[in-house]
Protein backbone atom coordinates (compact mmCIF):
# COMPACT_ATOMS: atom_id res chain seq x y z
CA UNK A 1 0.00 0.00 0.00
CA UNK A 2 1.44 3.44 -0.93
CA UNK A 3 2.73 5.59 1.93
CA UNK A 4 0.43 8.62 2.49
CA UNK A 5 2.37 11.85 1.98
CA UNK A 6 1.60 15.32 3.26
CA UNK A 7 3.40 17.61 0.82
CA UNK A 8 4.49 20.95 2.28
CA UNK A 9 5.53 23.46 -0.40
CA UNK A 10 7.75 26.42 0.56
CA UNK A 11 8.12 29.35 -1.86
CA UNK A 12 10.73 32.09 -1.39
CA UNK A 13 10.47 35.76 -2.30
CA UNK A 14 11.83 38.35 -4.75
CA UNK A 15 15.48 37.82 -5.73
CA UNK A 16 15.35 34.73 -3.52
CA UNK A 17 16.61 31.18 -3.71
CA UNK A 18 15.73 27.95 -1.86
CA UNK A 19 18.34 28.64 0.82
CA UNK A 20 16.20 31.48 2.14
CA UNK A 21 13.64 28.93 3.31
CA UNK A 22 16.20 26.64 4.98
CA UNK A 23 15.11 27.40 8.55
CA UNK A 24 11.44 26.78 7.77
CA UNK A 25 12.35 23.48 6.14
CA UNK A 26 14.57 22.47 9.06
CA UNK A 27 12.12 23.36 11.81
CA UNK A 28 9.09 21.82 10.07
CA UNK A 29 11.02 18.59 9.47
CA UNK A 30 12.23 18.47 13.08
CA UNK A 31 8.78 19.24 14.50
CA UNK A 32 7.01 16.43 12.66
CA UNK A 33 9.80 13.86 12.26
CA UNK A 34 8.34 11.40 14.79
CA UNK A 35 4.65 12.32 15.03
CA UNK A 36 3.03 11.19 11.78
CA UNK A 37 2.71 7.44 12.32
CA UNK A 38 2.18 5.67 9.00
CA UNK A 39 2.13 8.90 6.99
CA UNK A 40 5.07 11.11 6.08
CA UNK A 41 5.81 14.83 5.72
CA UNK A 42 7.62 15.73 2.50
CA UNK A 43 8.94 19.29 2.18
CA UNK A 44 9.34 20.73 -1.30
CA UNK A 45 11.29 24.00 -1.49
CA UNK A 46 10.48 25.53 -4.86
CA UNK A 47 13.56 26.00 -7.05
CA UNK A 48 12.35 26.86 -10.54
CA UNK A 49 11.40 30.49 -9.87
CA UNK A 50 14.55 31.93 -8.33
CA UNK A 51 16.80 35.00 -8.39
CA UNK A 52 16.45 36.85 -11.72
CA UNK A 53 13.46 34.69 -12.71
CA UNK A 54 11.42 36.37 -9.98
CA UNK A 55 11.24 39.47 -12.22
CA UNK A 56 9.00 37.56 -14.65
CA UNK A 57 5.73 38.13 -12.80
CA UNK A 58 3.46 36.39 -10.32
CA UNK A 59 1.77 34.47 -13.14
CA UNK A 60 4.86 33.02 -14.79
CA UNK A 61 6.36 32.28 -11.38
CA UNK A 62 3.14 30.51 -10.45
CA UNK A 63 3.18 28.47 -13.66
CA UNK A 64 6.73 27.29 -12.91
CA UNK A 65 6.06 26.36 -9.29
CA UNK A 66 2.76 24.62 -10.12
CA UNK A 67 4.60 22.42 -12.62
CA UNK A 68 7.23 21.73 -9.97
CA UNK A 69 4.52 20.60 -7.53
CA UNK A 70 2.89 18.31 -10.10
CA UNK A 71 6.27 16.86 -11.07
CA UNK A 72 7.04 16.17 -7.40
CA UNK A 73 3.71 14.39 -6.95
CA UNK A 74 4.47 12.19 -9.97
CA UNK A 75 7.97 11.49 -8.67
CA UNK A 76 6.60 10.37 -5.30
CA UNK A 77 4.01 8.16 -6.98
CA UNK A 78 6.74 6.50 -9.04
CA UNK A 79 8.53 5.77 -5.75
CA UNK A 80 5.46 3.99 -4.34
CA UNK A 81 4.16 6.93 -2.28
CA UNK A 82 0.94 8.90 -2.64
CA UNK A 83 0.34 12.58 -1.88
CA UNK A 84 -2.92 12.82 0.06
CA UNK A 85 -2.55 16.27 1.65
CA UNK A 86 -1.09 19.59 0.52
CA UNK A 87 0.07 22.63 2.47
CA UNK A 88 1.67 25.75 1.03
CA UNK A 89 3.69 28.54 2.65
CA UNK A 90 4.94 31.56 0.73
CA UNK A 91 7.33 34.25 1.93
CA UNK A 92 7.11 37.80 0.56
CA UNK A 93 6.53 37.58 -3.23
CA UNK A 94 6.31 33.81 -2.68
CA UNK A 95 2.97 34.31 -0.94
CA UNK A 96 1.49 35.86 -4.09
CA UNK A 97 3.03 33.12 -6.22
CA UNK A 98 1.50 30.58 -3.82
CA UNK A 99 -1.96 32.09 -4.31
CA UNK A 100 -1.53 31.77 -8.07
CA UNK A 101 -0.25 28.19 -7.75
CA UNK A 102 -3.28 26.95 -5.80
CA UNK A 103 -5.53 28.55 -8.42
CA UNK A 104 -3.80 26.50 -11.11
CA UNK A 105 -4.06 23.33 -9.03
CA UNK A 106 -7.79 23.87 -8.45
CA UNK A 107 -8.37 24.52 -12.15
CA UNK A 108 -6.62 21.24 -13.00
CA UNK A 109 -8.69 19.20 -10.54
CA UNK A 110 -5.74 18.55 -8.23
CA UNK A 111 -7.86 18.95 -5.08
CA UNK A 112 -10.29 16.26 -6.21
CA UNK A 113 -7.76 13.72 -4.94
CA UNK A 114 -5.54 15.75 -2.59
CA UNK A 115 -6.83 17.48 0.56
CA UNK A 116 -5.73 21.13 0.92
CA UNK A 117 -4.87 21.70 4.59
CA UNK A 118 -2.68 24.70 5.50
CA UNK A 119 -2.14 27.87 3.48
CA UNK A 120 0.25 30.38 5.03
CA UNK A 121 1.99 33.55 3.95
CA UNK A 122 4.76 35.42 5.73
CA UNK A 123 5.42 39.13 5.07
CA UNK A 124 3.57 38.98 1.74
CA UNK A 125 2.41 42.16 -0.09
CA UNK A 126 -1.18 40.97 -0.57
CA UNK A 127 -2.44 44.39 -1.69
CA UNK A 128 0.75 45.31 -3.51
CA UNK A 129 3.23 47.89 -2.27
CA UNK A 130 1.41 50.93 -0.84
CA UNK A 131 2.58 54.50 -1.21
CA UNK A 132 3.58 56.63 1.76
CA UNK A 133 3.77 60.44 1.86
CA UNK A 134 7.54 60.53 1.40
CA UNK A 135 9.95 61.23 -1.43
CA UNK A 136 11.50 57.75 -1.32
CA UNK A 137 8.09 56.08 -1.52
CA UNK A 138 7.06 58.30 -4.43
CA UNK A 139 10.26 57.42 -6.28
CA UNK A 140 9.65 53.72 -5.65
CA UNK A 141 6.13 54.01 -7.05
CA UNK A 142 7.48 55.73 -10.17
CA UNK A 143 10.55 53.56 -10.76
CA UNK A 144 9.41 50.18 -9.41
CA UNK A 145 7.22 49.20 -12.39
CA UNK A 146 10.09 50.07 -14.74
CA UNK A 147 13.01 48.57 -12.84
CA UNK A 148 11.38 45.34 -11.65
CA UNK A 149 9.86 44.27 -14.97
CA UNK A 150 6.53 42.42 -14.95
CA UNK A 151 6.69 41.72 -11.21
CA UNK A 152 7.24 45.41 -10.48
CA UNK A 153 4.19 46.36 -12.51
CA UNK A 154 2.14 43.82 -10.57
CA UNK A 155 3.52 44.93 -7.18
CA UNK A 156 2.29 48.47 -7.83
CA UNK A 157 -0.96 47.46 -9.61
CA UNK A 158 0.33 49.19 -12.74
CA UNK A 159 -0.33 46.15 -14.94
CA UNK A 160 -3.40 45.47 -17.05
CA UNK A 161 -3.38 41.72 -16.66
CA UNK A 162 -6.95 40.90 -17.65
CA UNK A 163 -8.64 41.78 -20.95
CA UNK A 164 -10.69 44.35 -19.04
CA UNK A 165 -7.50 45.97 -17.80
CA UNK A 166 -7.71 44.76 -14.21
CA UNK A 167 -4.39 44.24 -12.37
CA UNK A 168 -3.52 40.65 -11.50
CA UNK A 169 -3.80 41.35 -7.75
CA UNK A 170 -7.40 42.49 -8.24
CA UNK A 171 -8.26 39.38 -10.26
CA UNK A 172 -6.59 37.12 -7.68
CA UNK A 173 -8.63 38.66 -4.84
CA UNK A 174 -11.97 38.60 -6.68
CA UNK A 175 -14.32 36.14 -4.91
CA UNK A 176 -15.68 35.11 -8.32
CA UNK A 177 -12.26 34.01 -9.57
CA UNK A 178 -10.49 30.71 -9.10
CA UNK A 179 -7.59 32.07 -7.02
CA UNK A 180 -9.90 33.20 -4.22
CA UNK A 181 -11.98 30.05 -4.53
CA UNK A 182 -8.85 27.92 -4.19
CA UNK A 183 -8.07 29.56 -0.85
CA UNK A 184 -11.53 28.66 0.45
CA UNK A 185 -10.67 24.99 -0.03
CA UNK A 186 -7.93 25.09 2.61
CA UNK A 187 -8.80 24.08 6.15
CA UNK A 188 -6.48 26.67 7.71
CA UNK A 189 -5.55 30.12 6.37
CA UNK A 190 -2.91 31.95 8.39
CA UNK A 191 -0.88 35.04 7.52
CA UNK A 192 2.12 36.51 9.33
CA UNK A 193 3.07 40.19 9.19
CA UNK A 194 5.75 42.29 10.79
CA UNK A 195 3.94 44.78 13.00
CA UNK A 196 6.82 47.26 12.76
CA UNK A 197 10.10 47.86 10.95
CA UNK A 198 9.40 46.01 7.72
CA UNK A 199 10.66 48.48 5.15
CA UNK A 200 10.08 46.00 2.31
CA UNK A 201 6.52 44.80 2.97
CA UNK A 202 4.77 47.14 5.45
CA UNK A 203 2.15 46.01 7.93
CA UNK A 204 -0.98 47.09 6.03
CA UNK A 205 -0.20 44.95 2.98
CA UNK A 206 1.19 41.91 4.84
CA UNK A 207 -1.69 41.96 7.35
CA UNK A 208 -4.32 43.04 4.78
CA UNK A 209 -5.55 45.99 6.85
CA UNK A 210 -6.85 49.48 6.09
CA UNK A 211 -4.90 51.10 8.90
CA UNK A 212 -1.67 50.57 10.79
CA UNK A 213 -2.13 50.64 14.58
CA UNK A 214 1.59 50.01 15.10
CA UNK A 215 2.94 52.86 12.95
CA UNK A 216 3.13 55.11 16.01
CA UNK A 217 3.01 52.43 18.70
CA UNK A 218 5.29 54.40 21.03
CA UNK A 219 2.94 57.39 21.19
CA UNK A 220 -0.57 56.40 20.04
CA UNK A 221 -1.57 54.40 23.12
CA UNK A 222 -1.74 50.93 21.54
CA UNK A 223 -1.28 48.29 24.24
CA UNK A 224 0.80 45.30 23.17
CA UNK A 225 1.08 41.97 24.99
CA UNK A 226 3.83 39.65 23.82
CA UNK A 227 3.51 35.87 23.63
CA UNK A 228 5.46 34.20 26.43
CA UNK A 229 5.94 30.94 24.55
CA UNK A 230 6.95 32.56 21.26
CA UNK A 231 9.07 35.67 21.88
CA UNK A 232 8.83 38.38 19.21
CA UNK A 233 5.23 37.39 18.47
CA UNK A 234 2.33 39.56 19.64
CA UNK A 235 -0.32 37.66 21.60
CA UNK A 236 -2.84 40.50 21.51
CA UNK A 237 -3.09 44.25 21.18
CA UNK A 238 -5.73 46.84 21.99
CA UNK A 239 -6.21 50.34 20.64
CA UNK A 240 -7.25 53.15 22.96
CA UNK A 241 -10.10 55.40 21.82
CA UNK A 242 -8.18 58.40 23.08
CA UNK A 243 -4.42 58.57 22.52
CA UNK A 244 -2.21 59.64 25.42
CA UNK A 245 -1.18 63.30 25.62
CA UNK A 246 1.75 64.11 23.38
CA UNK A 247 5.00 65.49 24.80
CA UNK A 248 5.55 69.20 24.50
CA UNK A 249 7.59 70.41 21.56
CA UNK A 250 11.14 71.38 22.41
CA UNK A 251 13.32 74.00 20.81
CA UNK A 252 15.53 72.77 17.97
CA UNK A 253 19.19 72.27 18.97
CA UNK A 254 18.32 72.51 22.66
CA UNK A 255 19.56 69.93 25.18
CA UNK A 256 16.13 68.27 25.35
CA UNK A 257 16.01 68.17 21.54
CA UNK A 258 19.25 66.17 21.39
CA UNK A 259 18.04 63.88 24.20
CA UNK A 260 14.88 63.11 22.22
CA UNK A 261 16.84 61.19 19.58
CA UNK A 262 16.90 57.42 20.02
CA UNK A 263 19.47 55.42 18.15
CA UNK A 264 18.24 51.94 18.96
CA UNK A 265 18.25 50.91 15.31
CA UNK A 266 21.50 50.45 13.40
CA UNK A 267 22.30 53.32 11.06
CA UNK A 268 23.52 51.01 8.29
CA UNK A 269 22.37 47.57 7.04
CA UNK A 270 23.69 44.48 8.89
CA UNK A 271 26.24 43.72 6.16
CA UNK A 272 27.88 47.12 6.79
CA UNK A 273 27.89 47.06 10.60
CA UNK A 274 31.62 47.14 11.34
CA UNK A 275 33.61 47.47 14.54
CA UNK A 276 35.70 50.46 15.55
CA UNK A 277 37.69 51.92 13.84
CA UNK A 278 36.36 50.49 10.56
CA UNK A 279 32.90 51.86 11.30
CA UNK A 280 34.29 55.41 11.52
CA UNK A 281 36.03 54.95 8.19
CA UNK A 282 32.78 53.66 6.67
CA UNK A 283 30.75 56.64 7.93
CA UNK A 284 33.24 59.12 6.50
CA UNK A 285 33.01 57.40 3.11
CA UNK A 286 29.19 57.28 3.01
CA UNK A 287 28.83 60.48 0.89
CA UNK A 288 30.88 58.72 -1.78
CA UNK A 289 29.58 55.18 -1.27
CA UNK A 290 25.84 55.95 -1.32
CA UNK A 291 25.64 57.41 -4.87
CA UNK A 292 28.06 54.74 -6.13
CA UNK A 293 26.01 51.88 -4.67
CA UNK A 294 22.74 53.41 -5.90
CA UNK A 295 24.15 53.71 -9.41
CA UNK A 296 25.27 50.07 -9.40
CA UNK A 297 21.88 48.91 -8.08
CA UNK A 298 19.95 50.91 -10.69
CA UNK A 299 22.10 49.55 -13.50
CA UNK A 300 21.65 45.98 -12.25
CA UNK A 301 17.88 46.41 -11.91
CA UNK A 302 17.68 47.87 -15.41
CA UNK A 303 19.67 45.03 -16.97
CA UNK A 304 17.74 42.35 -15.06
CA UNK A 305 14.44 43.97 -16.00
CA UNK A 306 15.41 44.10 -19.67
CA UNK A 307 16.42 40.43 -19.60
CA UNK A 308 13.16 39.54 -17.86
CA UNK A 309 11.00 41.34 -20.43
CA UNK A 310 12.81 39.52 -23.23
CA UNK A 311 12.36 36.22 -21.38
CA UNK A 312 8.63 36.81 -20.81
CA UNK A 313 8.18 37.76 -24.47
CA UNK A 314 9.83 34.49 -25.49
CA UNK A 315 7.70 32.54 -23.01
CA UNK A 316 4.50 34.07 -24.34
CA UNK A 317 5.56 33.47 -27.93
CA UNK A 318 6.31 29.83 -27.20
CA UNK A 319 3.17 29.34 -25.11
CA UNK A 320 1.29 26.94 -27.37
CA UNK A 321 -2.15 25.66 -26.48
CA UNK A 322 -2.35 22.09 -25.23
CA UNK A 323 -4.71 19.85 -23.33
CA UNK A 324 -3.80 21.79 -20.21
CA UNK A 325 -4.59 25.38 -21.08
CA UNK A 326 -2.81 28.16 -19.22
CA UNK A 327 -4.98 29.58 -16.49
CA UNK A 328 -4.49 33.07 -17.95
CA UNK A 329 -6.35 32.10 -21.13
CA UNK A 330 -9.25 30.53 -19.24
CA UNK A 331 -9.61 33.62 -17.06
CA UNK A 332 -9.41 35.85 -20.12
CA UNK A 333 -12.60 34.26 -21.42
CA UNK A 334 -14.31 34.78 -18.06
CA UNK A 335 -13.16 38.38 -17.83
CA UNK A 336 -14.90 39.16 -21.10
CA UNK A 337 -18.17 38.74 -19.21
CA UNK A 338 -17.27 41.18 -16.45
CA UNK A 339 -17.94 44.87 -16.96
CA UNK A 340 -15.38 46.88 -15.02
CA UNK A 341 -17.83 49.72 -14.47
CA UNK A 342 -20.33 47.38 -12.84
CA UNK A 343 -17.65 45.96 -10.56
CA UNK A 344 -16.60 49.44 -9.49
CA UNK A 345 -20.20 50.39 -8.81
CA UNK A 346 -20.98 47.35 -6.69
CA UNK A 347 -17.80 47.37 -4.63
CA UNK A 348 -17.43 50.37 -2.37
CA UNK A 349 -13.79 51.43 -2.84
CA UNK A 350 -13.78 53.41 0.40
CA UNK A 351 -15.32 51.23 3.11
CA UNK A 352 -15.15 52.40 6.69
CA UNK A 353 -12.64 50.42 8.80
CA UNK A 354 -13.89 48.74 11.95
CA UNK A 355 -11.66 51.03 14.01
CA UNK A 356 -9.80 54.28 13.62
CA UNK A 357 -6.14 54.46 14.58
CA UNK A 358 -5.06 57.81 16.03
CA UNK A 359 -2.93 59.57 13.41
CA UNK A 360 -0.30 61.96 14.71
CA UNK A 361 2.42 61.68 12.07
CA UNK A 362 0.78 61.31 8.66
CA UNK A 363 4.06 60.30 7.01
CA UNK A 364 3.95 57.02 8.98
CA UNK A 365 0.66 55.95 7.39
CA UNK A 366 0.03 54.67 3.84
CA UNK A 367 -2.08 56.26 1.13
CA UNK A 368 -4.26 53.43 -0.15
CA UNK A 369 -5.70 53.40 -3.66
CA UNK A 370 -9.23 52.30 -4.50
CA UNK A 371 -7.80 49.05 -5.87
CA UNK A 372 -6.00 48.37 -2.60
CA UNK A 373 -9.07 49.12 -0.49
CA UNK A 374 -11.08 46.73 -2.63
CA UNK A 375 -8.44 44.02 -2.19
CA UNK A 376 -8.55 44.45 1.59
CA UNK A 377 -12.33 44.17 1.63
CA UNK A 378 -12.42 41.06 -0.53
CA UNK A 379 -9.55 39.18 1.14
CA UNK A 380 -10.87 39.82 4.63
CA UNK A 381 -14.02 37.87 3.79
CA UNK A 382 -11.77 34.80 3.98
CA UNK A 383 -11.41 33.14 7.43
CA UNK A 384 -7.89 34.49 7.92
CA UNK A 385 -5.96 33.99 11.14
CA UNK A 386 -3.48 36.85 11.50
CA UNK A 387 -0.23 36.76 13.47
CA UNK A 388 2.04 39.75 14.09
CA UNK A 389 5.79 39.65 14.66
CA UNK A 390 7.40 42.45 16.66
CA UNK A 391 11.11 43.23 16.21
CA UNK A 392 11.68 46.69 17.73
CA UNK A 393 15.45 47.12 17.47
CA UNK A 394 16.17 46.42 13.80
CA UNK A 395 16.09 48.66 10.76
CA UNK A 396 14.36 46.12 8.50
CA UNK A 397 12.71 43.00 9.92
CA UNK A 398 11.74 41.56 6.53
CA UNK A 399 14.55 38.98 6.41
CA UNK A 400 14.59 38.37 10.15
CA UNK A 401 11.00 37.10 10.30
CA UNK A 402 12.03 33.88 8.49
CA UNK A 403 15.63 33.74 9.80
CA UNK A 404 16.67 34.13 6.18
CA UNK A 405 20.43 34.10 6.66
CA UNK A 406 21.47 32.97 10.14
CA UNK A 407 24.99 32.09 8.98
CA UNK A 408 25.83 35.67 8.04
CA UNK A 409 23.63 37.58 10.48
CA UNK A 410 23.28 36.29 14.04
CA UNK A 411 20.31 38.61 14.66
CA UNK A 412 18.24 36.62 12.16
CA UNK A 413 18.03 33.86 14.78
CA UNK A 414 15.41 35.97 16.57
CA UNK A 415 12.97 34.97 13.85
CA UNK A 416 13.09 31.35 14.99
CA UNK A 417 10.28 31.89 17.49
CA UNK A 418 7.99 33.02 14.66
CA UNK A 419 8.98 30.01 12.55
CA UNK A 420 8.33 27.64 15.46
CA UNK A 421 4.88 29.15 15.94
CA UNK A 422 4.24 28.61 12.22
CA UNK A 423 5.41 24.99 12.43
CA UNK A 424 3.45 24.25 15.62
CA UNK A 425 0.30 25.74 14.05
CA UNK A 426 0.38 23.44 11.03
CA UNK A 427 -2.13 20.62 10.94
CA UNK A 428 -0.22 17.67 9.55
From TrEMBL:
Ranges of residues in domain DUF676: 4-205
Domain of life: Eukaryota
Keywords: Membrane, Transmembrane, Transmembrane helix
Record flagged with keyword Transferase: no
Sequence intervals crossing the membrane: 280-303
Alphabetical list of SUPFAM superfamilies matching this protein: alpha/beta-Hydrolases (SSF53474)
Entry similarity comment: Belongs to the putative lipase ROG1 family.
PANTHER family assigned to the protein according to its UniProt record, in alphabetical order: LIPASE ROG1-RELATED, LIPASE ROG1-RELATED-RELATED
Name by which UniProt lists this protein: Lipid particle protein
Organism, as annotated: Coprinopsis marcescibilis
